[in-house]
Amino acid sequence: MSHSGTAPMASAEPLLTVAGMEVVYRGRRVWPWKTVGRVRAVSDLSFTIGRGETFALVGESGSGKSTVARAVQGLVPVRSGQVLFEGRDVTRPIGRRDSLVKKRMQIVFQNPDASLNPRHSVATIIGRPLAVFHNLSGAERRSRTSDLLADAQLDEGYLRRMPGQLSGGERQRVAIARALAAEPELLLCDEILSALDVSVQASIIELLHKLQRERSLAYLFISHDLSVVRWLAHRVAVLFAGALCETGPVDRVFQPPYHPYTESLLMAVPLLAGVRRPLPSPAAEAEPERINQIGCLYAHRCPRRIPGICDSVAPPVQRLGAGHEIRCHVPIGELAAGQRDLTVRITSDTPPTRPADCIEQT
Amino acid sequence: MSTQAENESKPVIRVAGLSVEYWTHRRWVEVVSGVELSIGPREILGLAGESGCGKSTVAYALLGERRPGSRIRSGNILFEGRDLLRLGDPELRKIRGARIGFVPQNPTASLTPSMSCGAQIVEVLAFHGAARGGEAKAAALDLMGQVGLPDAAATFVKYPHQLSGGQQQRVVIAMALACRPALIVLDEPTTGLDVTTQWRILRLLSELRDRFQTALLYVSHDLGALAEICDRIAVMYAGKIVEVAPTAELFKAPRHPYSRGLLASVPRIDSPPERRLALRGTLKREDMPAGCRFAPRCDFAEQACREREPLLGLAGEAHHVACRRWRELAARPDLGRESLDGAHVA
């Protein structure tokens, strides 16, 4: 099912380019000299998404992944950096974007309870973008609405229902159908599966696959579930505290050598085999409270921290070929030593991966 | 000696024939039907199923709690020689929090926002007369250390909003443990927490089970989490238990078509998804047949399945399954979305 490696990167120009994005939540000024809640949510983030490609952002809550989707969509202000859509600069609030850009870039939020108007019927909810972006009305709009519902595997009986009469999975499908109504080329999916049962998750993943095959839709797929990302995404970026730790094709990022943070995320993924995994290092147990803003942001939790360097100098980018990059002071060979493939079931006789096997010569 | 051995094997709690109804659409709808469960000493039993299958209703029943708009139609829950369903509120209050602890899904909603975390643990101890004053404070500090809260003295005076979600859940676990209960009921305790935090909480729970000799009922739709800590898992579908098995056995050889579908639907990092085996459709209580409730979604259902209700039968050591055709399925574990006689089902 994995389509890694077959990522359609043919067209030279990426669909979406994010360059050096920085987003700062300004916080609240409680006194003239004191501000509370000021947070740099995203710092110096760059990535591209090609047509028909799935690019995933992973990280813990608070890592800034939802902020990235909101900033791309123009829902939160970008402090510096650029968002380019097909080479055009669209770095401005959504209200000041032209309707063609709005039409071609749609977002689906995590919580369909909050993103669907409870007083509008499903027909009204899906019909709205059809009227706004495609000037459809009457019978034409009705038939298009039913088509979209069918795409989301819901029958026409749902048209007259209200969001309150739907289950969580059905609501999320309606939210996806609404986003598709505009006929976007890029769909921003912000944790769209996290509130759903596994059976519903599986059918929505299947729907996303189908739409990508048929319309070569591109996805910015934000998720904390690495198991979903592994089989859905072509490329992935790992964020910690708003900064990029590692990026590259999924198969490369999920194989050693890893960034120490990627390793800790992968280690926490449950394997359904009833095997107990090794304990995390005590450093990784630390709750994310203090974050060093000078050196590597992950330094205070990193089990491989190099004293004197990691907490004072920003980590360099180490390129491993095929677009795989790790931002870490620890040399790749040292990272690879002792890291093992965490995406295979651990048995007592699995030997640790030898570093020589996994360093890409470029 | 023999009495001790008897105590060892005697279940902490035994649920028999539990049926619960809810008042919806102007009639009583049965949400839990004839559930049988028992949890042994120090055992972690998982209760799995999709939303709406009745697993939380069972969890609340174990606390002798009736959720609003619900009534118990039949059954009994034997705990320490008494039937929890026949007890009045004053007696239940003495059991809840003291003998049976509870950890709900959302720690932010279950902690009092205007009381410091330490005071909330002290309150539990004082309410059940376990400790008072300085003694209670010392006990609370000790508990906070036991659940892995950093710097117990500092956390004691903090308010819930000053803690992260994982730490809040640790405070709730400390409250559940405070009176050394025989059983703790956990309703989706790690849903909404980060994967890394979830992992730490799961590890903590299995450590605490050993340290406090407590039995756990762990209710979750997250099979990954259940696989991590449970000794046995019961799978519920539409208010009935369809399969119970030791964890490793369930993941290796699920026998009920629903369990098979559920397991195949879980995204796994170590193998690509198997759409062929995954579940189709959703749980709809409106079109429930007289026979097996899973029949409308089952790829292997026959006429007989829709007519006669399957009962839980033995399918291995400590492995029970409620399916007429489990033997045929067991013989062909790779069978997918095709019926047994080869005809393809769309």
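Chain A touches chain B through 46 residues (CB under 8 Å).
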